[in-house]
Design a protein that fits this description.
two-stranded antiparallel sheet, mainly alpha, 417 residues, 19 helices
């Protein structure tokens, strides 16, 4: 392929290119996807299986027009942990199912009523900083995953992190030809080699793993209190989904809110979460890591994302392969995340630039300022057992302010400075 060539959403990719690109994509999603089941205390195999199935369903429902990978959702961590502690994991699954069904209903309402309201409640001056916050608030997560924060920092982690990050950063701007589209994969490989050389990789789990194993499927149980504990997370999911679809659309140069439509992508998200709950997996959501990889590599093809989904399904049954991938240490994941999350933040700034937002106008400057400070200040609002903070709280504040500004403008109360 030629340097700088964009592989568009509908482009067919030859097998010789499809395999390494799909592996790269899956690796970029893997760390975050398996972290959620580890926190919940369940085997990640069923999660890898459902992430793959959910992604393939998403591609199908969105008519192969929206390049998104569905991974484990972090939004459910706080309420689900409470439910698991008091009721058990099966009852958390019941809450996941209720949320998934409700998301499908919201998608139906959007299908009937349209999505033009988004331009009113989330104009570019609000959406730009909200999207930027998706990446910026993950910055600390990348650093902590890499093990380079805190008082006791291992020099081995630092070495592996710098090898990985350097390969990703310099590779993304210096690699040519075929290598220019797989800088993340190369960074992961070099980081893993550095991990083995420094002795931070433990192969015990790999040696003990069987060659073949079925995912640990289970079914949900229902309790109204457990469901109500998890239910408010819907606000988080919908806000996050809208933000991801808008920034993905900006990257690929298409309005995904209109075509294939927010109703289709949200429906796919809801169906995937519902099916996950029915087989014992965690809820799924569109992934920021997917956005970062596309921004760096300019590879948007749904064939590549579908290939990553198939590899994830294979890993859920292949015990040895799944265990080997699980040995990729935090400094490697954190090293590539530094670049991936930064790319998402830059995409938010790009929205402001591409939309020619005039910060000389007081309404635009006020929106951008308040949204950024809300997201980065650490302030939070609790709704039952669900805590709104960071990008999600900033998105809610942005929607309220934008709607009020629209009403004031209609009434002629804005000063238009």
């Amino acid at each position: 392929m030629n340097d700088g060539k964009i592989i568009q959403v509908e482009d067919k990719v030859p097998v010789s290119l499809l395999v390494p690109l799909s592996i790269q994509h899956m690796f970029a999603m893997f760390g975050a996807s398996v972290l959620v089941p580890f926190i919940f205390g369940i085997n990640p195999a069923v999660v890898l299986f459902m992430n793959g199935i959910g992604t393939l369903l998403f591609i199908l429902i969105t008519k192969k027009k929206s390049p998104a990978y569905l991974g484990s959702s972090f939004a459910f961590l706080a309420p689900a942990t409470i439910v698991i502690k008091h009721y058990g994991y099966a009852y958390a699954l019941g809450g996941f199912l209720a949320v998934g069904i409700c998301i499908c209903l919201i998608a139906f309402v959007i299908y009937k009523c349209g999505s033009d309201w988004i331009n009113i409640v989330l104009p570019p001056a609000a959406m730009g900083p909200v999207v930027a916050l998706i990446g910026l608030e993950l910055a600390s997560t990348a650093a902590s995953t890499a093990g380079i924060t805190g008082d006791a920092i291992s020099m081995k982690n630092v070495i592996v992190f710098f090898v990985t990050a350097a390969a990703a950063i310099f590779g993304s701007v210096m690699f040519r030809g075929f290598l220019s589209v797989i800088p993340i994969l190369i960074a992961i490989i070099l980081g893993y080699i550095a991990s083995v050389a420094t002795g931070i990789v433990n192969f015990d789990a790999f040696m003990a793993a069987p060659f073949f194993a079925l995912p640990n499927f289970s079914t949900p149980k229902f309790d109204i209190n457990a469901m109500l504990t998890i239910f408010p997370v819907i606000l988080v999911i919908v806000s996050e989904h809208i933000g991801h679809q808008i920034v993905t659309g900006k990257i690929v140069g298409r309005d995904l809110i209109k075509d294939p439509g927010l109703h289709r992508s949200l429906l796919a998200d809801g169906i995937s979460t519902s099916l996950s709950a029915l087989i014992g997996s965690v809820p799924t959501t569109t992934y920021g890591e997917n956005i970062g990889v596309m921004a760096i590599t300019k590879v948007y093809s749904v064939m590549v994302i579908g290939g990553a989904a198939v590899i994830s399904i294979i890993c859920s049954f292949a015990g040895k392969l799944s265990a080997l991938i699980s040995t990729i240490p935090g400094p490697v994941i954190g090293g590539v995340s530094f670049l991936l999350y930064g790319m998402i933040g830059a995409s938010g700034i790009r929205i402001l630039i591409d939309s020619q937002v005039d910060l000389g106008k007081s309404r635009n400057l006020t929106l951008v300022s308040v949204v950024f400070i809300t997201g980065l200040s650490g302030v939070s609002v609790k709704l039952g057992n669900v805590q709104l903070k960071g990008m999600v709280l900033a998105c809610v504040v942005a929607m309220i302010l934008s709607l009020l500004f629209h009403i004031f403008d209609t009434l002629g109360l804005m000063n238009d400075r």
